Amino acid sequence: MDAFVELSAELTGFSAEELRSTGLVEQYRALAQGASEADIIELWYTGVWRGVVPSARAYAEGLAWKAVGVAAPGTSAPGFGSWERRPRRSTS
After folding, report:
1. Looking at CB atoms within 10 Å, which of 9, 29, 33, 70 has the fewest?
2. How confident is the model at residue 88 (pLDDT cuts 50, 70, 90)?
3. In a domain, 25, yes or no
């Protein structure tokens, strides 16, 4: 499993610890046996394997969401009273 994690870290740019923290290493390793590097990258970033989302967790833990610093849509509520606070303005 460590070889898969190290390869995935190299391909995605996320650390081995970040990938392990998703809780998806074993599931993804089983899916990606014999897969191309592009398939492995797509799996980690999108949580989709050959057109199918293998689990709700895979969608929520997609690296694309982490890369842009947001939660996957529909996975976390903004919280009670959030409508009272103004949205943060982008500084860029």
Report:
1. 33
2. confident
3. yes
Based on the number of CB atoms within 10 Å of its own CB, is 28 exposed (0-12), middle (13-18) or buried (19 or more)?
A: buried
Contact call for residues 43 and 50 (beta carbons, < 8 A): no
Number of domains in the chain: 1
What's the pTM?
A: 0.81
Residue type, 31: L
Q: What are residue 87's phi and psi, to 5 degrees?
A: -60, 150
Q: Amino acid identity of 19?
A: L
1 close to 26: Cβ distance less than 8 angstroms: yes
- Establish if 63 belongs to a structural domain: yes
- Average of per-residue pLDDT across 18-30: 97
Residue closest to 1 by CA, chosen among 25, 32, 36: 25
